[in-house]
Queue: 3 jobs
Job 1
Amino acid sequence: MAEKVTIATVAHHARVSRQTVSNVLNSPHIVREETRRRVEEAIAALGYRANQAARQMRTGRSHLLAVRIEPTRDGINGSVLDRFLHGLTFAAAAAGYRVMLYTADGDGDEIKTFDDLLASYDLDGFVLTGTDHGDVRTFWLAEHGVPFVTFGRPWDAPERHSWVDVDNAAGTAQATRRLIETGHRRIGFIGWPAGSGVGDDRRDGWQRTMKAHDLDPAGLDRGADDGIPQGAECARDLLAMPDAPTAFVCASDSLALGALRAGGGSAVIGFDDTPVAQAIGLTSVSQPLPDAAARCIDLLTDHLDGDPVGTTQVLLQPSLVVRTTA
Amino acid sequence: MAEKVTIATVAHHARVSRQTVSNVLNSPHIVREETRRRVEEAIAALGYRANQAARQMRTGRSHLLAVRIEPTRDGINGSVLDRFLHGLTFAAAAAGYRVMLYTADGDGDEIKTFDDLLASYDLDGFVLTGTDHGDVRTFWLAEHGVPFVTFGRPWDAPERHSWVDVDNAAGTAQATRRLIETGHRRIGFIGWPAGSGVGDDRRDGWQRTMKAHDLDPAGLDRGADDGIPQGAECARDLLAMPDAPTAFVCASDSLALGALRAGGGSAVIGFDDTPVAQAIGLTSVSQPLPDAAARCIDLLTDHLDGDPVGTTQVLLQPSLVVRTTA
DNA sequence: CCCTGCAACTTGAACGATCCAATGATGCAC
DNA sequence: GTGCATCATTGGATCGTTCAAGTTGCAGGG
């Protein structure tokens, strides 16, 4: 077992004081060129790495960020979080931070966990996913002065805090345009019940694009909770209409899959580009998850390392992955 | 902003010394009943929680475990890791530990990350997933005296370290029995090229069950890398035989999906019970992931909190989730 | 009565880093 | 040569916790 290498070991080895070693690491510019080089050589030779716990005690900064890992609700959208997490971890490491996971059972429980993590691990910040209207979690964090970024915008007040989001409407608009270009005129939309910010946004993109092409969207949309059976149900309902749609834009791959099974024909487009879509050849709107994750980390670390003033918003463009269904 | 509550605050409030508070937390039995209660009340009243960084400095234990998050290789099996991670985080929290993520690009890079994490965060242990023959990572960890558990056994030497695994052979055996019970006699197996422990194990379960039922497995198996096209290719090859199989047991849902698409009929069983299987109604062998995660944490924390002697192995039974394809 | 032993609790030091104030070295002008 | 400003470098204190050693009070044996 190798001996423990502390800042004192390095200092001794480079024949300087501890403080000088610390300066080389934290404010290199105030150390003379030659001394700095000697210290850096000692650090490399001994394989020294600063002990985060000790650093944290003094500075109050743990270089730890936390993200909630959800219990993979309906199983289909889990992979979105998965890819996002990988991006976060990667980007965080590049910025000198590490990602810690936590689970929670509802917003109240999550806030209790915030408190716990802050008190015992001195977390530097949080990345929240899936915000909804008037999210209590964001208010709690803001109130306690805890830095955080959400992936997903606060629909009631866009500039209340920093966030990164994907332009959902642009995604469904792209999907709708694609269907129009391939000759469809009556295009249905299968989404979630009105009231969810993301769902409404996705419906909007479809609706606006229809109107922009002089197509009447009235009566062509349905809403249901996410799921394959629900998607099928909505599709059947639309297909039973006198002037039934010949193509469908859906708010999720689950709904799209349902529509496909209900005999929605071959013109169906989903959302999220999940593994399911890749597997069955479903055309789907893809979110730039690694990019979104990287931007989340950027916003957080900028806030942590620089001047904590103001909030920043980032809206990313999704892209359409064309496969066999459109 | 609330004042910082330290052990000294609690001590003052309960009119005892810091050490007595520490004893109440770490060795309650040596503190007098009445004193203990007074201290516990003070802790509750002030909302005190021990600072892990300070504790770690003294004890060398961070109560942090690390898991690698992979870049979702082929997209289909990513959700397995996702569900496993959730289970880990949950079980770890219950045992007083937290889970930290890291990424790595290959085994060499992962070992460098081990070194880094140990030096700067003083991690207590690692959970490794996806071990292969003669895994260099496990040797490095063992050599450096770092506690770890793998999800997946070391195929070359079963008792070299602690692990939790799912009985793959039992899974494919169950799948094969199911197909035999529903009247099939010529059952093909589509798996991975020989040489991977997991793949060979899954092939074994099929082979043994066939023989146990006086069915000849010879010539009925194919091997290819994981993926839908590969699965389709293998299925086509088998179906072109003079006495073609009427059903397929597959080593993964991806391969199974390929077999289905190649016209493998309606009798196809996959492995892993991924969202894709759930989505398309594919019968699949399901791994008890939350349970496996909990056992990993058990093994690790037992080792950390108790006497670090010997290794333990846990083999869990998978279950067959019957849907529409078998 | 003193000593021993034990239980219950207190005090001082240490973990490894950073912050702060003070010291030493250097150059330059007078 | 002395004074002074400037800057690199040093030593000591500190963060919050636990470990090791020490103190106190009390019961029981000789």
Job 2
Amino acid sequence: MNEPVPTLDDVAKMAGVSTATVSRCLNEPGKVIETTRDKVMKAVDALGYTPNFAARVMAAKRSYTIGAIVPTLDNAIFAKGLQAFQEALHARGYTLLVSSSAYKPEIEKEQIRTLVARGADGLLLIGYEREGQLYDYLARQNVPALVAWAFDADGPVPSIGFDNHAAMRAVTQAAIDRGHRRIAMISGVCEGNDRAQKRLDGVKTAMAEKGVSPDALAVIETAYTIEAGEAAFARLMARTPRATAVICGNDLLAVGALQSAKTLGIDVPGDVSLTGFDDMELARIVQPTLTTVSVPHREMGQAAADELMAMVEGTSPGRSRLLETEIVLRASLR
Amino acid sequence: MNEPVPTLDDVAKMAGVSTATVSRCLNEPGKVIETTRDKVMKAVDALGYTPNFAARVMAAKRSYTIGAIVPTLDNAIFAKGLQAFQEALHARGYTLLVSSSAYKPEIEKEQIRTLVARGADGLLLIGYEREGQLYDYLARQNVPALVAWAFDADGPVPSIGFDNHAAMRAVTQAAIDRGHRRIAMISGVCEGNDRAQKRLDGVKTAMAEKGVSPDALAVIETAYTIEAGEAAFARLMARTPRATAVICGNDLLAVGALQSAKTLGIDVPGDVSLTGFDDMELARIVQPTLTTVSVPHREMGQAAADELMAMVEGTSPGRSRLLETEIVLRASLR
DNA sequence: AAGCTCAGTGTAAGCGCTTACATAAAGTAT
DNA sequence: ATACTTTATGTAAGCGCTTACACTGAGCTT
């Protein structure tokens, strides 16, 4: 057993050429004459040779690998965008390495270092909020990074995303326009999460603009899960006066709220209106269907991939791009 | 700009020791005396040194990396198990590399080669069905592999999973016991997917055992998505005589069927009963709630991680393990 | 025909680490 | 005090690739 794995040298010997030629056959076939290439390829097949990636990275100082760190893979929020991201990378010969940080900054930091140590040529990050020195670190390691799912033209690295503040402001305006005055919010945890914070601010802005005092806004910050949404909604409903509209930080929270409403015998949208964010598949499945914000996940993933590859290849200094969101009016808001 | 990234040599020089000592400080701190270690660590911090992973893998011939290839990340089916898998790996210093094959064998093959080339110490695969030579390839490369989400004590590699056939048989029995005789199935695509095939077989077995002719079973094979489930259900309902129970290959298909039923004005479970598989969160959210099969995702991920690490470290030849599933009776079956 | 260019190939120097082995110093047993 | 361990560190040989540079010979130009 333990038959040794074939190396470039073995291939070279079998084909009767130098290692350089084998390497060129594999990486720049055009630079090798056809007869030679045939010999080499025959040897590659015969030996079942696969290049050793670590050796290649080390010698070439280039890994054709892009790393992405998302807060979670546990729900579908990032899955769609990431899928598009990965497809775009794959089409140009890059590999995607994904890891999840469980919304924990220290884990994210570790993952960033891990990915850099693994030779990632570039990094996709979600949102801006992290220690500033991490950006310095990336700069020092010459690893370009791009932020997605958030937008800030003046951030430390470029971003491709949408305006969380404006989107949530628009949703809230829609609620106020329908006569709602007592508004509550179930928000994601804002600390360390600029997206959550901006969404919360968006609600406040809309209220202020429409002459509804934002001071009266009841806010519960909680984890982005269905269960948390359920619990938060129950707590909100226990307060008096009761809110007539509950703005949720994302669809999961809204779905949880909906479940809770059912348990409590509260009719949505009859007694209370509800809105979400993300327009996950789930939003169309629940009863009543969810008014929410549709985000161009696939477009974002695609654009992020293109931009990041350009940055890695030095053909772009890194350009930010703002994508449009859209309010999807469904049954849960009345 | 382009300040060079510090290397082990730089650290060694700054600390006034040899590279071997620095390496030992990082990997086997116990073998270095404290005063030396302090000097080294100070240099590491001062330089912001991070070991180069490719170099380490190459020199040590060990990457502490485990690869996993799942059919999809697009829904939550594998997310939970994978999360547990990753946590268990992380706890023992391993890193997980995930990629998704989009249910395509040729992509999976490529991913397997990619992960091996990247020096994965071991591989987690889903289900057994793939070219036999892939198993040979892994054996030749000395990369242990483990199959999850399926069980076969005599497979080419060990497995940790559950009995798809028995579980689906039990669900079907439950339907027949409630008086259903005209049964239909919305199955996943069986070609290249042993889990889907086994689930389909489970339905047939139960029918045969209960004296219901399996020949009458209407089967539609389709992709594991909500939309596909919707379309399939509509097609099934157009047939006469209509089935009174529709067994679905997983929860997504069942949810799709439910949506379709609503559109068509068919009452579930009044007119037609419905069952799913996986017990995703979704199963408790839809109306009516879904009768389905609960799978111990977390336990499976954890067990798979433990076993695979043992295989990688040579402390286990690879032991298969069968986990129990459980039928969860909810409103959709009557 | 001399001098070019240039395509195709080979030579060999690393890339940044780990680790077997060598060495030195200190501790222990006799 | 001698010989033998043990412990801490250093030396240097790779690991399997890529690529700058050198080389060769064929085809051009003049």
Job 3
Amino acid sequence: MTSSHNREAVYRAIADPTRRAMLLMLSKKESSATELASPFDISQPAASQHLRVLRDAGLVTVERKGRERRYRLDPAPLHDVHNWLEHFERFWNAKLDALGNYLNRIA
Amino acid sequence: MTSSHNREAVYRAIADPTRRAMLLMLSKKESSATELASPFDISQPAASQHLRVLRDAGLVTVERKGRERRYRLDPAPLHDVHNWLEHFERFWNAKLDALGNYLNRIA
DNA sequence: TTGATATATAAGTGAACACTTATATATTGA
DNA sequence: TCAATATATAAGTGTTCACTTATATATCAA
């Protein structure tokens, strides 16, 4: 169980606002497919397809529970994105520093 | 100049590996379009189109310099992505904590 | 001025995307 | 057993994407 997920798939998965919202919902509580679909004005299959993309990206796990599927967040793949972003962190820190300096100068 | 950039555009921009690599290049040094295109096995217009997407997302700025265009990173829009990711940070911290506990237990 | 260089835009193409309706499958409860 | 519920998959469609070649524009250098 190498937890090997396509690194590309994560970026693709979070590129869609509906899927990002679903992930946010799952960060609050695990949910059924129906619950995850309910806030969105899309058909049930459309929601199911979004959940599939999230599954393929390794961002959620599913467990059958009666006739429901309980979806649970697996945030691990998001770590890749976070790590990538860290390459840029010093830049916006620098910008904020520059702003801070400027504010100090005029204050 | 409200620096208002489409929030969606950022996620779309970083969804492509070539564009992510370009952003990484620009985090090292500002570069011309040709320099940015050179590592990739794509046509000059394809690279130019990628740069356009990055521009539209507000991730780069351009300055004409003779017959070159100097591209410079503007990491600000990435902050949105970073902020969004922070909703999940506690989860992977929790996971790492659990791992840490486990390691402590067996060590 | 003319040719080379740097870059962008236009137009076209195939693949991927997000969605739909229709249908299949499994589970529950009457 | 049968109808309702929960979900996934299949098939089709219009849009977006990443790419190509062709072309336009601006600058530089001879």
